[in-house]
Amino acid sequence: MSRSLDVLAACEAFVAVADRESFTAGALAAGISQSVASRRIGALEAHLGGRLFDRTSRRVALTALGRGVLPSATRLVGAAADLVDDARRSRSRPLSVGVPPSVPPLVLAELCAAGAAGRLPLAPVAGNPAERAEAFRSGRTSLFLENVPSDRARWTARLGVGSHPDDDATGTFHLGELRPARGRPTGALRRLWLQPEDDVPHVRDRMERARDEAGLAPVQVRVAESTVRALSEILVSDDLVLCTRPEASTYDLRWRPLGDQQLVRAYAVGAADESLAARFVALCSSAVVTVLGADDASGRATQTGLEPVRG
Predict the structure, then answer these.
(1) DSSP state at residue 294
(2) CB atoms within 10 A of CB 279
(3) Rounded to the nearest 10 degrees, how much is the dihedral formed by the CA atoms of 230, 235, 237, 240?
(4) Which CATH number fits domain 155-264: 3.90.1140.10, 3.40.190.10, 3.60.10.10, 3.30.390.50?
(5) What percent of the chain has pLDDT over 70?
(6) Which residues pair with 96 in a beta bridge?
(7) What is the model's pTM?
(8) Distance from CA of residue 196 to its chain's centroid?
(9) Domain at 95-152+266-292: CATH code
(10) CB–CB of 175/223 below 8 Å?
(11) Mean pLDDT calculated for residue range 98-104
(12) Would the pLDDT of 305 be above 70?
């Protein structure tokens, strides 16, 4: 093959002229001059080793070679057009991003709007930490908000405890408060529920160690199978849920910070393409702060635009 021959451009000219049986009309359809069309077809003929058109008659007619190669040339031109169309659709297809569950729809809409403003359409895919990681590994998402230890985090959200709206407790919370009061039935131990979002080693394991150090029963600090389950227990008992301040606001709970230790949810962007991750962060970091209920630069928890937290 001649290194200087643009086979696609030559085939485009060839197919256009063959379809219209005219060099003039074919060149016009291909968006080139007639002389350029003739030159490209001539180069293709030299490459294929024979004439493609019979130029002896007034009407442009295909030779036997021309008829033989026209289907392949047509497929090549069509495939090139399909490639361009596929690329255009791919660029406009929303980028799937794994996000925590239970994020209010309006907050996710703000995340999508931030991406769209920078021509980065987003499609949030909700799931707990393990589900987000698996969706990324399987290729169902391109990015995900990954739970990481705090020393690797881009965003952190301070954790505390949420309790029933009528709870009148104030100040910081200590795990010792879960020790049963004298005379309390053994089967009615007060519990602290962890949401699935906190079922990660750097949160769960620390809470379990603190539970053991406080002399509590294993069942008193446990992971709920869902946030709904944890909240339902709070509504019918004096149980507590580990949560961020914005979450407590969303769920209409009283919120208290932890007194035994400083514990945070910590996040980074999980991505295979570093440039894509950098673009996402540049466009959407402020919106991600709201999505995660993360602390701002001053260390204060952001709110989601809902009612102020109680207590």
Answers:
(1) -
(2) 18
(3) 50
(4) 3.40.190.10
(5) 91
(6) 123
(7) 0.70
(8) 19
(9) 3.40.190.10
(10) no
(11) 94
(12) no
